Amino acid sequence: MSTTLFLILCLNGLQYGMLLFLIAAGLTLVFGVMGFINLAHGVQYMVGAYLVYAYVQLTGSFIVAVFLSLGTALIFGLLLEFFVFRHLYTRSHLDQVLATFGIIIFLNELAKVVFGPATLSVAPPEFLAGSIQLTETLRYPVYRFATIIAGLAVAAVLYFTISYTRIGMLIRAGATSAEMVSALGVNIQRLFMIVFGVGAMLAGFAGVIAAPIFAIEPGMGDNILIVTFVVIIIGGIGSIGGAFIAALLVGLIDTLGRSFATEILSTLFSPSFANQIGPALASMLIYILMAAILVFRPKGLLPAKGVA
Amino acid sequence: MKKHLKYLTTSLAMSTALGSMALAEDIKIGMVVTLSGPPAALGQQIVDGFQLALDEKDGMLGGQKIELIVEDDELKPDVALLKATSLVERDEVDFVVGTVFSNMLQAIFKPVVQSETFLVSPNAGPSTFAGRNCNPYFFVTSYQNNQNAEISGMIANEEGFESVFTMVPNYQAGRDNIEGFKQTFKGTVTDEVFTPLGHQDFSAELARISTSDADAVFTFMPGGMGVRLVNQFANAGLSENTKFMSVFTTDETTLPGQKDAAVGFLAAGSWAPDLANDANTAFVSAFEAKYGYVPGSYAMQAYDAASLIDSAVAKTGGDLSDKDAVRAALKEADFTSLRGDFSFNNNHYPVQDFHMLNVIKREDGNYQTSFVRTIAEDYPDSFHQDCKM
Question: Any transmembrane segments, and where (chain A) (predicted)?
């Protein structure tokens, strides 16, 4: 196992972590600030991917398609909030789970009806295609570098917004005590709507940048939703900073684990045993981490202040 | 009131009796395939291929009117079992055609063959029913699962690959394919990598491939996994130095998502859309005209399944009550297969030619697999000697 391979794997882990962060950021805000369980968040990721596919077909330009998709994802999130989620804020968590689960099923089937069941793909834009020669034997796709940078940029903007702007202050205050903020004359309903819309847009953005790397198919958001919940539990519910650290941690552990678990095990056990156990253990690592966090730091790595 | 009820039930009973009498002439075929979730494209190919054969014969097989009942197994064994049982018990079908996936077949196998209904598999060909547990009521028109991987090993030998990196999803079919490949491949296998089923990001595995110095990669990544792997493989720039060999990874169901990334990749199979015989040429052009997409091996195998039933019904003159006669007629496989030579082994799995295929871009902009050369002629599966039939 060479150092270059290790570095490549770290880059991959970083890139996967960025993707997870984009989805987790919205989920953790909606979950932490509004106390609302939104299982349909993963479906927003799928919607983003299908949107960019449709807009690339229409306009022929990836960049134009990205902006159109972001706008549409935002509007879509706001519409969902207006027609469905708004009526569920005061209901029990079970009702929220049922309703948002219904939305998952509905949108997955809708994607199948509109785009067909086959797997689709989008080519990355010309200037981001190709790969960089890192060492003699190793190349790294430019597009993946771009996703890392995009993820970092979004993280920076979010951090600035939450920490230093008025709306960020209101979001933090709303998380601590929604009634108090409301009593001070702030339209909490609208605040929630904004948080929800932006969260949906970020998940959509994750879907957009994932589309050229991963395939687009109905139900693509379901698996990533589970990992995203792991991320926000590890990071601390409602905490953007926690989501960022946890997303990177999960991305790195998952990527490195998959490559090294079998090798490490084969130094201890017979190769055939390691081959059987290694892949299974690698897929379990992030859940083991989550279990450990729940035992030793139940509020997550960087818990948000004031969130119960 | 009681009397009225009695009349009602009698008349109801009579009307149902009449209803089934009117239909007694029709032959019923029940189909159990996967039509939901990401693998739905495979099931759709099977439905379309079978339907095309029916339409070409005016809805008749062997001169008898056919009633086709299509059921979706949702890729859940319990659902498959329920659907198959109701086809056999409620609809009393004469044939069951299914399934796409081997684990679905395992679920429906017992109730169907125990009811002495003929089960024709248009795709799944697990080793389980090829050897000791072969069954007189079970026929396969596709292949035995291990065969394509065994042929891939032979292709690697013929192409002169000395070292091969293997990667499959971590489940039974994945492990079977690696075993099949190693059985015939004479060089060294540098790595055996097992990924989770439905794997998203192959970047870690691709990094390992690029540092492994292997001549080629052998993989089995059906459906969306194949689309992701091939696109990421090409994006990482690995196509230049490493050959890509696969089974069920670059086929007509995944190529619309892989496009140029897959061109030139090698595959093993018993058929390609441009396999040169008259029946096949007619089939491919009729299929594309009717459904607007390129047929894959799934559609071909379903079409052959319909042709097989057609020949058997014709031979028995439409009388399906004598099971031994129907079985003998099926066993003869007296139909024109789109693959050319086709016959059944003692275990009712096909004996057929296998070829090396590669992916090409056609002039009309569509992508398909293309015949390169024949690797093995009349190739039987490795389990038939254990079958006492």
Answer: 62-85, 97-122, 142-162, 194-216, 223-253, 273-296
